[in-house]
Write a structure and sequence with these properties.
This protein is α+β, with helices and mostly antiparallel strands and about 325 residues long. The chain has 3 domains: about 80 residues, Signal recognition particle alu RNA binding heterodimer, srp9/1; about 60 residues, Signal recognition particle alu RNA binding heterodimer, srp9/1 (2-Layer Sandwich); about 160 residues, Alpha-D-Glucose-1,6-Bisphosphate, Chain A, domain 4 (2-Layer Sandwich), CATH 3.30.530. The protein contains 6 helices and 15 strands. The chain has a 7-stranded antiparallel beta sheet. A hairpin with a 2-residue loop joins strand 3 and strand 4. Helix 1 packs antiparallel against helix 2. It is elongated and about 75 Å long. The two termini are about 45 Å apart.
């Protein structure tokens, strides 16, 4: 089952969805005008109002349409259920991973519109704000604070760094195996193999050589690829053939990790955020993960420093 929101406009639907496509980083996947209807009434002829539009953002779809042309009574009863009224009683919500992305979207949508609640930190969110855009659509923009883990759940590890490059540039560093070969891994390792099949269900398989000459292998199995916004995958240590293995130095480390890489651009710079949590861990694996946040921070900091050095010379 799909559950989607459909926004109604009075002749401004296309302009609104072109803005939403740009600001939200989505893609309009279909746009049909009343004039395109194959068997519409005479009032549809030459009418450029939008009868249906779909905007895909990640795995979500936002739909919209304009009210019917003037003079058209679409219902035999004489009622006009689609007659335009100012939107009320709801808000479309966008939830993002970083305060910078929340600020960017909020201010872009608020331009020419009306602020209902200024963007600010709240008790539940790093950033939260409400507005009505210039087309009348009510919005909420949210960047949540990490929630306390429920009993039996594991709080994810999160770390971010902002790089002075556009988002498309940083995205390529994570989706091109030859670029990954140049910087991926902890400080001091050399990537000796880098093979990528970038699609949901595909894998990235890589090999590393440590400064003392030891070889280690790892792989990603991609679940979601939303260019240039987000990568979601399961990561694990592996052998040279891609089979799952335990961490070579920490036998109680979780066998598989659910990983999300997000990329948020603001002012020509891009904030890269890692969200990392164990997948179906045993109690021992969960305890090892929860006790290892300092070492994870150290490892990811070194990896990001290598990425920064690569970007400075690329």
């Amino acid at each position: 089952m799909d559950l989607n929101t459909c926004l109604l406009f009075d002749g401004q639907c296309e302009d609104a969805f072109r803005l939403y496509e740009k600001v939200l980083g989505g893609k309009i996947t279909g746009l049909m005008r009343y004039a395109d209807a194959p068997s519409g009434p005479p009032a549809f002829k030459g009418c450029n109002r939008v009868i249906h539009v779909s905007l895909r953002v990640g795995d979500r779809v936002l739909m919209g349409s304009d009210t019917p042309p003037d003079g058209l009574d679409p219902m035999p009863s004489g009622h006009r259920p689609d007659e335009y009224k100012v939107p009320q009683g709801f808000r479309a919500n966008v939830t993002v991973d970083t305060p910078a992305e929340a600020e960017r979207i909020y201010h872009a949508l608020a331009e020419g519109g009306a602020v209902a609640m200024p963007m600010a930190e709240t008790f539940f969110a790093r950033r939260f704000g409400m507005l009505n855009d210039r087309f009348g659509t009510p919005w909420m923009i949210t960047c949540l604070k990490p929630m306390p883990a429920a009993e039996g759940e594991t709080k994810p590890f999160v770390i971010s760094r902002t790089f002075d490059v556009p988002r498309d540039t940083l995205w390529k560093c994570f989706t091109d195996p030859e670029r990954m070969r140049q910087w991926w891994g902890p400080t001091g390792v050399t990537i000796i193999a880098s093979k990528m099949d970038l699609r949901p269900g595909g894998t990235y398989h890589y090999g590393m050589r440590t400064p003392d000459g030891k070889e280690m292998w790892g792989k990603f199995v991609y679940r979601e690829i939303t260019p240039p916004e987000r990568l979601v995958f399961v990561s694990a240590f592996s052998d040279e053939k891609g089979g799952l293995t335990r961490h070579p130095l920490a036998p109680s480390w979780p066998i598989e990790m659910l990983s999300m890489f997000s990329f948020a651009e603001a002012g020509g710079k891009t904030t890269f955020t890692v969200t990392w949590s164990p997948l179906n861990p045993t109690p021992e694996e969960r305890a090892t993960f929860e006790a290892s946040h300092d070492s994870m921070k150290q490892g990811w900091t070194g990896t990001m420093e290598q990425l920064g050095a690569y970007l400075a010379t690329a």
